[in-house]
Amino acid sequence: MAFQKSTIVRAIRPIFRTFEAVAPGPGAVLTERMWCYVPPSRAERAEQPGERFTVRLNGRDVAAEAWGEGPIVYLMHGWGGRRAQLDGFVHPLLWTGHRVVTFDAPSHGDSAPGAFGPGRGLLPEFSDALAAVVAVAGPAHGIIAHSLGASAAALAVLDGLPVSRAVFISPLADPMPYTVEFAKTFGFGEKIRNGFLRRLELRVGRRMLDFSVPSRARTHPTPLPSLLVVHDREDKQTHYADGEAIAAAWPGAHLMTTNGLRHRRILHDPDVIDAAVSHIATPAHIPA
Q: Is 43 contained in some domain?
């Protein structure tokens, strides 16, 4: 994720400098709310609507949709996205004999707000939503996921979700370096950043270290799914180096590099779609 300079950012920087100096606690509260903000996404609908259903997660509705029959492939959008953004993968997967299931993460699309309330989201909720949908719709043969959704899918797998094959498109490897970028962009220092990280760890009930995909993949005690990582060198929202790091740490993973597709056009590129579907369609045993 990239944090772009703007008039608003320039206006906020003096406020954060003051918070850093005299009130880092309130500064950390504000930082957490800003970090967890979910930008509104454009309403999109699948070209051919599927079977819609709802899954309950912690008493809240997660909107899901399914097409076809066969081994199930789950499609997972990124931060500020919605399920229709991966619509280009649906028909190719159906053509190869798969059932396709998509869903909107909490606080995204047609799903209800998550635990942090309307307009706010949490990375673990993405992973929890995937696990909840799989529990209702059936075992996952494959997952194709984008951006932070790819990170969440990776964490779900590393936490024990059985999956045979996976494709991570423009994944974020570890949120910690992005918190440093966030601090530089908005002009606050380590007092606020450390306070914000403590608040976030308490909110999600996990250490930030748990969200480093390369670190956990490198030391994972059991075999991991066959993985294709796709990342564009010009991605301004998640760094190309993140895709490299995940591919290097994940045993047997393959990295596909694109040029000029950046962060969103990559989801509509025919070569990317073909590579992802081909990877998913290769027969493999679903880990027990």
A: no
List Cβ neighbours of 243 (8 Å cut-off, separation of 6 or more).
168, 170, 171, 173, 229, 230, 231, 255
Q: Kindly state whether residues 22 and 101 are assigned to the same domain.
A: no
Element (H, E) at 93: helix 90-95
DSSP secondary structure letters along 47-74: SS--EEEEEEETTEEEEEEEE-SSSEEE
d(CA 4, CA 261): 19
Residue type, 109: G
Say whether both 88 and 139 belong to one domain.
yes
What tens digit of pLDDT does each residue of 190-224 get?
999 999 999 999 999 999 999 999 999 999 999 99
Domain that holds residue 167: 50-174+213-281
Domain count, the chain: 2
Is the pTM here over 0.90, yes or no? yes
The tokens for 14 are 């003096």
Alpha-carbon gap, residue 84 to 104, rounded angstroms: 9
